[in-house]
Amino acid sequence: MAEGHRSTLADEQFGQGLPEHSEAALREEAAAGDFRLAPHPTITRIGKPLLLIVMDGLGESKFHDEFNAVEQANTPTLDALKELAPRRWRMLKAHGTAVGLPTDADMGNSEVGHNALGAGQIVDQGAKCVDGALATGSLFKLDGWKWIEANAVAGTLHLIGLLSDGGVHSRYDQLTLLMEGAIQQGVKRIRLHVLSDGRDVNDNTAVAWVERLQGDVAALSQRLDVDVRIASGGGRMAVTMDRYESDWRVVQRGYYAHVLGEAPHRFKDPVQGVRELKKGNTVSDQYIEAWVVVGEDGESVGRVADGDAVVTFNFRADRMVEISQALEYPKFDKFDRKRWPDFRFAGIMQYDGDLLLPKHFLVPPPLIERASEQYVVGTGLRVFACSESQKIGHVTFFWNGNRSGYLDPKLEKFEEIPSDQGISFDKAPAMKAREIAAATKQALLSGKYDFVRCNFANPDMVGHTGNLKAAIEAVTVTDECVKVLLDAVDQAGGRFLVTADHGNAEEMSQRDKAGNPVIKDGKPVELTSHTLNPVLCAIGGPGLPGRGCCWQDDLPNAGLANVTATFLNLLGFEAPDFYKPTLITTDGE
Ligand SMILES: O=C(O)[C@@H](CO)OP(=O)(O)O
Ligand SMILES: [Mn+2]
Ligand SMILES: [Mn+2]
């Protein structure tokens, strides 16, 4: 059924112009050799590894002042890439329509960035698919809605997700359209379980967001004569939105607050309550502890009951997988659920197409067909991918077009370095970069792999804390680790490509329209989000062909999706012709 959903909607409304294939068919084809790459005419295979590094959240800003953590950091390796090989580096677009987001005002993010890097194509992303399904009303006609409809109408509809207009995981306008649409379908009672952001939008805006929602909910309730209330919440990094099993306690807090109605903070009015929790702004919006709204009787107003319906309204997958498991799996041992009511659950998207999780979803997810790894393993190349827990799925799941697990366990090895748990990453800004470098170096020198890729999480994760000093340290350590790996490429006689998935650390202060840092109470106001900035792409290594490679001159608007054909060339192969064009040529140098 899931496949049927995907194909109908993908074809009719958001067609990618590529042939329809089910996952199973794709794998069969791979096995049958349909994914063999043709050798590149001039960049030959040398039997030495290609290294690809993603520096997560490291972009280039036009502001060259003290708030640019990338420029403030000590980066001799990255500087040398530019200075020593002027024709082997360039900048790439990493935001907006260049990576499949709805508009060029949308900042880049890891999901779309790694999807583009791995898939070589620009695919309409989840945000756009949900926009379309809400605009046409198809969302309420498909099987996902049908699955929850009777419960939603007869019981309570619970909506769980991130409260902001960041556009990375969710969007406020989609939440309100979803509510309105559900009410038109006959829903009378809605409970909202909302996570504060402070990461994709400015920090210390949590109160304003809850206040806005409270206002809109009051107006809606009155206008349409329905009972809608804010029921529970917390900060996204402390409650519900863990990813890649970094810390299940985060999900447990969410399940307890949203489903059981249990939380350390209980108050009658969510605006006043959150205002109290945010007093003096001593805690970031991202880390607000779990809270529930209680009625006169002291009981939670929004615990999930038998016969209710639950929808998670984040369209992005990584941070919804664990809560979906907690909501959906009959057998579940990550924490004690205490009570698992008999409700019906649908995600606004399916968050994992291989696990088919959740089973029911309101909007078909973007299917990314013919991702590069299918060709890479289809050609028999051996792959090593490494990161720490916070980003491991980025270089595997997102990279492989949202496929979880191995495409070919005989040819691929994914290595996860456990991330620190329970701390804000500015407390340990190196994160696990050195461990990632060590594991990746070992893979490069082992002779066991043709394609070795890794992701350094710390410019991004530390950038999100808003702590400038820590972000500078994070970038410095990243540069040091890039050096370790480029030295290993030298030793191995291989080739490399260094890039990033979007910006973050290069802008650590909010700016006014004139570009000046925003100052409040005598202090610069931190910027915790990603940016719209371009990212570096640099190639090199002793294994480059005799006459070398350099950039094509005619691709001024190239973006992350052009990297895919480029690294396939560096592996010694031609890219599929429907991929975005390669950035390199062997003419002219
Ligand atoms: O932390 C995350 O979930 C996002 C920001 O919302 O960052 P990234 O896209 O880099 O993973
Ligand atoms: Mn990222
Ligand atoms: Mn990020």
UniProtKB/TrEMBL annotation:
<dbReference type="Pfam" id="PF06415">
    <property type="entry name" value="iPGM_N"/>
</dbReference>
<dbReference type="InterPro" id="IPR005995">
    <property type="entry name" value="Pgm_bpd_ind"/>
</dbReference>
<protein>
    <recommendedName>
        <fullName>phosphoglycerate mutase (2,3-diphosphoglycerate-independent)</fullName>
        <ecNumber>5.4.2.12</ecNumber>
    </recommendedName>
</protein>
<dbReference type="Pfam" id="PF01676">
    <property type="entry name" value="Metalloenzyme"/>
</dbReference>
<dbReference type="InterPro" id="IPR017850">
    <property type="entry name" value="Alkaline_phosphatase_core_sf"/>
</dbReference>
<dbReference type="GO" id="GO:0030145">
    <property type="term" value="F:manganese ion binding"/>
</dbReference>
<keyword id="KW-0464">Manganese</keyword>
<dbReference type="InterPro" id="IPR011258">
    <property type="entry name" value="BPG-indep_PGM_N"/>
</dbReference>
<feature type="domain" description="BPG-independent PGAM N-terminal">
    <location>
        <begin position="131"/>
        <end position="352"/>
    </location>
</feature>
<comment type="pathway">
    <text>Carbohydrate degradation; glycolysis; pyruvate from D-glyceraldehyde 3-phosphate: step 3/5.</text>
</comment>
<keyword id="KW-0479">Metal-binding</keyword>
<dbReference type="GO" id="GO:0010037">
    <property type="term" value="P:response to carbon dioxide"/>
</dbReference>
<keyword id="KW-0413">Isomerase</keyword>
<keyword id="KW-0324">Glycolysis</keyword>
<dbReference type="GO" id="GO:0006096">
    <property type="term" value="P:glycolytic process"/>
</dbReference>
<dbReference type="GO" id="GO:0006007">
    <property type="term" value="P:glucose catabolic process"/>
</dbReference>
<comment type="similarity">
    <text>Belongs to the BPG-independent phosphoglycerate mutase family.</text>
</comment>
<dbReference type="GO" id="GO:0005737">
    <property type="term" value="C:cytoplasm"/>
</dbReference>
<dbReference type="InterPro" id="IPR036646">
    <property type="entry name" value="PGAM_B_sf"/>
</dbReference>
<dbReference type="InterPro" id="IPR006124">
    <property type="entry name" value="Metalloenzyme"/>
</dbReference>
<dbReference type="GO" id="GO:0004619">
    <property type="term" value="F:phosphoglycerate mutase activity"/>
</dbReference>
<feature type="domain" description="Metalloenzyme">
    <location>
        <begin position="48"/>
        <end position="574"/>
    </location>
</feature>
